[in-house]
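Recall the central idea of this unit: under ordinary conditions, the amino acid sequence of a chain determines the structure it adopts. In this exercise we apply that idea directly, starting from the sequence alone.
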Amino acid sequence: MDLPLSTLSFGTEAKITKIMGGCGLIRRLTELGLTYGTQIKIVSEPCGGPVLIEVRDTRLALGRGVATKIFVEE
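Accordingly, the structure predicted from this sequence is:
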């Protein structure tokens, strides 16, 4: 079952299944290393600020709007 990235809680590991967005958003996320099948880990509490994730030994901060367009499966 696919869930938006913004709904996951601290410490959850998941795999990216799809990205719902325009060409510009998809290109930008791909440049950051967020591609289909990539394993990610949530490293921030879901308290309203940016979503901090760890991907390929790097930490990224994503705005909540962008995080709602990235779907994952746990």
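The two ends are 8 Å apart (CA to CA).
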